[in-house]
Design goal:
Oligomer: single chain
Distance between the termini: 24 Å
Helix content: 25-40%
CATH superfamily of the largest domain: ATP-grasp fold, B domain
Number of strands: 12
Number of domains: 3
CATH architecture of the largest domain: 2-Layer Sandwich
Structural class: alpha+beta
Strand content: 15-25%
CATH topology of the largest domain: D-amino Acid Aminotransferase, Chain A, domain 1
């Protein structure tokens, strides 16, 4: 029986999401017949190392990485696992680090000919004093996920200086044009794009943290009711982005679709998540289920496709 250590929790702003993902994964892997060792991750790296490489007792055969955010999906824990020579789920150091860095990811996508939003990194001090782009525009951290810290500034909005003064995500921010229209997402498993989901946030037009993870926070329409050409293009872009970054296992591409002038409209790739959520409201498990892949089978597939890059 394969022994699987599940890393969950972590120290990022997405700790609660990771806790929810981890609990789901632990139950699913046990149901799938694996020996599961839960490893609740905090700020004690030594404790994590001891759980993964004990001085006595067996080491895990595989690590299931259910961490989200900093240290969990930015290449940090991936480097530790490579060093320990333990196969792990999801992407390796390079793909994880690039996907988490919005500036680097945007450069990779643009070089691959994928559609991206116009924008640039901005010093937060600059943001406090003037608009770096014509309104409306989006301000987001360079290295966070789950829409943590994302703000949309529209015409007549006087929050710019307040946002800059309260910024807690480093000296720089990514500022991009606001793309009107619909929120789409496409999950990828290996070399296969699964489906296109349209997301409608209940609280308004912005798919924020609460909309993503709160019960009833959003409606997911799968398959998305969009023009067939756009549907096919979204699947193609998601798989191309996965490959451009060098992702492994599962990933999820988030896109905006501007159909305000009619269909087919403009499709824009926002980002790729190398550690898609595995909570009860998450999109990857939903798309897998849509194709007849139950959650335990999805988690088992991730374990069987784990690899070590060290």
């Amino acid at each position: 029986m394969k022994r699987v250590a599940v890393l969950y929790g972590g120290m990022s702003a997405e700790r609660e999401v990771s806790l929810a993902s981890g609990k789901q994964v632990i139950a699913a892997l046990r149901q799938a017949g694996f020996e599961v060792v839960p490893v609740l991750v905090g700020d004690d790296l030594q404790a994590v190392l001891h759980a993964l490489a004990p001085t006595s007792g067996p080491r895990p055969d595989v690590v299931f990485n259910a961490l989200h955010g900093r240290y969990g999906e930015d290449g940090a824990i991936q480097g530790v696992l490579d060093w320990l020579n333990i196969p792990y789920t999801h992407s390796g150091v390079r793909a994880s680090a690039m996907a988490m860095d919005k500036q680097a990811a945007k450069a990779v996508f643009a070089a691959a000919g994928l559609p991206v939003a116009a924008g640039r990194p901005v010093d937060v001090a600059e943001l406090e004093h003037h608009d770096p782009l014509p309104l409306p525009y989006v301000v987001k951290p360079l290295n966070e996920g789950s829409s943590v810290g994302v703000e949309i500034l529209r015409g007549g909005d006087n929050r710019r200086a307040e946002i800059a003064r309260g910024w807690r995500f480093g000296p720089m921010a990514m500022v991009e044009e606001y793309i009107p229209g619909r929120e789409l997402t496409v999950a990828v498993m290996g070399d296969r794009a699964l489906a296109v989901t349209e997301i409608q946030a209940q609280a308004g037009v912005f798919y924020d943290y609460e909309s993503k993870y709160g019960q009833g926070g959003s409606d997911h329409r799968i398959p998305a009711a969009i023009h067939p050409e756009t549907y096919a293009k979204a699947m193609e872009v998601a798989l191309a982005a996965h490959r451009a970054l060098g992702c492994r296992g599962a990933s999820r591409a988030d896109l905006r679709y501007d159909d305000t002038a009619g269909e087919p409209g403009r499709l824009v790739l926002l980002e790729v998540n190398t550690q898609p959520g595995l909570t009860p409201t998450s999109l990857l498990p939903e798309q897998a289920a849509h194709l007849g892949i139950p959650f335990p089978a999805l988690c088992a597939w991730m374990v069987e496709n784990a690899a070590c890059r060290g």
